[in-house]
Write a structure and sequence with these properties.
Elements: H1 2-20, E1 25-30, H2 38-52, E2 56-61, H3 66-75, E3 80-84, H4 85-93, E4 106-122, E5 137-139, H5 146-157, E6 166-168, H6 172-181, E7 186-191, H7 196-204, E8 207-209, H8 214-223, E9 228-232, E10 244-256, H9 261-272, H10 275-281, H11 303-311
Parallel strand pairs: 1-2, 1-3, 5-6, 5-7
Antiparallel strand pairs: 3-10, 4-7, 4-8, 4-10, 9-10
Length: 316
Amino acid sequence: MKKMFAAAAAILAALVVTSCAPSKKNYIIATGGTSGTYYPFGGALANIWNTKIENMNVTAQSTGASAENLRLISNGDAEFATVQNDVMDYAYKGTDMFAGKPLPNLSVMGTMYEEVIQIAARKDSGIKTIDDLRGKRVSIGDAGSGVEFNAKQILEGYGITFDDIKKNNLSFKESGEGLQNGTLDACFVTAGVPNAALQELAFTNGLILIPVDEDHAYDICKKYGFYTQTVIPGGTYKGTDVDTPALAIKCTIAVNAQLDEATVYEMTKAVFENLEELGNAHAKGKEVSVEKAVSGVSVPFHPGAAKYFKEVGAIR
């Protein structure tokens, strides 16, 4: 009888302990393809949250990247995602690739690192400025891609439409090959620097990077709040010895707007108080900072993220 009472007491005690223990919060961060940057970078973020915040379990999920990720968040199938801030702007406002179909439940935790719009031309093309692209054979990325909209918006800033160029919708690899074999004169590439396709072109045929001058950059950034001004350092590609002014979009952590403020505050704080660890886990983490995390934001911050950035003086 004593043994029975002892066993029952042990079971009861275990139940009490279990019921008192806080349950784990299970979340998904949607990223990108396993061979790209978003997937390992999202994994590095998940690791920080899982190790720095008690009772949290965040899983990095491989996806088709930005547009799919925003739909996953909107539908409640993911709580976080790495996305391009321009695509997020389209989804939130229902424009461009999301024309007439805005997605609900989207908010921002912060922007991470730059993805630069690189405008490259064959060295022997005679192209030196964006105005020189008129009448030329120009690749603007895959049809319906974010690159295509970047090209459209930048050209528009110079009073140029797609009708003014010989438009080609090609992937980065195909664009590089076209510039090498002479079937293209120039291309737009939105990616981290250096880009592999442009590196190969620089070594084989040589390339010229086309700058976005200060005045036009200012006007484009004013019209489209997701752009930021940046510089492609001289020496990034063989034969490019001077810095090239450019525009960039930013990898952004998107958050389901329905998540509670306390959780998102805690997660935002965990990221920006462990930037050294993020940088050690992924090279792109070295480009992240509190100050830069509030630039290029055209969609409202999640209240939890806004609370953190106000505390540290990044936003008023």
